[in-house]
Amino acid sequence: MGSKLLANLDILTTIQSEQRLIPNTVQLAPCEICSSSCPFCSVAYRPLKSYLSFPKIEKLLRDFRSLGARACELTGGGQPDLYSDPTNKKNINDVIECANSLGYKIGIITNANDLKRIDRQNYDKIEWIRISLIKLEEGHEPEDYNFRDFPYGKLAFSYIIYKQTEASPSLLKKKFTYTPTSPAIFEKIARLVDLHPQIKFVRIVGDCLVKDGQEQTKQDFGGIINAIDKYKKFFIRDSDYGDHPFEHGCFIGALRP
Question: How does pLDDT run across 211-225, given as a tens digit for each residue?
Answer without folding.
Answer: 777 888 899 999 999
